UniProtKB/TrEMBL annotation:
Domain Sec20 C-terminal: 135-225
Organism: Notodromas monacha
Keyword Endoplasmic reticulum (UniProt): yes
Identification of the protein by name: Sec20 C-terminal domain-containing protein
Pfam families hit by this protein: Sec20 (PF03908)
Keyword Transport annotated: yes
Subcellular location: Endoplasmic reticulum membrane
Family per record: Belongs to the SEC20 family.
A single GO cellular-component term on record: endoplasmic reticulum membrane
GO biological process, one term: retrograde vesicle-mediated transport, Golgi to endoplasmic reticulum
Length: 226
């Protein structure tokens, strides 16, 4: 095994030991129940099994290493971690005993509080039911208020639609009146155009009559003089 592989193996062993030590501390704290204690012990067994395999690999690496300082260092590391593994077993037994005592004390306290706890539970359930009933009443009142608001909005919308319909009717009447006025204006325009043409014709006739009169006067004067 080369030096890089040995270094990675030693780092893995240290990390496994840190995890095992953390689990043992959690067991010693006694903050778990029986199921949690079983789960933590299963985790310890799994980590310990892997750690033993890693230590065997470290022993094999020490045996395969040529005699010298590196081999002595690997042998010392292997011995140190084996001692650490033994210490873990002792610490685990102690932590399990502490956790079992904590669980037993909690169970005993729970038994003493059972009667009072049951009464407290009943009172809590009664309060919970009362709170639920009050909440249901509040929700019902809120729904009624929302229904009233929606009804008012519907009424306002209906009034708005009626107003728009009335406005549309007025606009239609105004449009009809404008159409009638447009027809009248068109007829007035035609009449004015017709009267304009008639006025022009009358002017031509007056001018022609006046010219004829002047011609007759000139003719009469000419005959009298000559």
């Amino acid at each position: 095994m080369d030096s890089a592989a040995v270094k990675a193996l030693l780092q893995d062993i240290v990390e496994r030991e840190i995890r095992i030590s953390s689990i043992i501390r959690r067991i010693g704290d006694g903050q778990v129940d029986n199921i949690g204690l079983l789960d933590l012990n299963q985790d310890i067994r799994a980590e310990t099994k892997i750690l033993r395999e890693k230590l065997r690999d470290l022993d094999d690496a020490a045996v395969d290493c040529p005699a010298g300082e590196d081999r002595d260092m690997l042998m010392k590391e292997s011995k140190k971690h084996c001692i650490e593994l033994t210490n873990f077993r002792t610490a685990l037994r102690k932590a399990n005993l502490q956790c079992q005592m904590s669980i037993s004390n909690r169970n005993a306290e729970e038994l003493f509080r059972t009667k009072d706890g049951y009464k407290l539970k009943v009172r809590r359930e009664e309060r919970s039911k009362e709170s639920i009933a009050n909440s249901a009443a509040d929700v019902t009142n809120d729904l009624r208020a929302i229904a009233r608001v929606m009804a008012e909005q519907v009424d306002r919308s209906k009034m708005t639609v009626d107003a728009l319909a009335t406005s549309s009717q007025h606009l239609e009447e105004v449009r009809s009146e404008f159409k009638g006025m447009n027809h009248v204006i068109s007829q007035a325009h035609n009449l004015l155009t017709k009267y304009g043409r008639r006025e022009f014709t009358d002017k031509l006739l007056i001018f022609a009559a006046f010219a004829f009169f002047v011609a007759c006067v000139l003719y009469v004067i000419q005959k009298r003089l000559f």
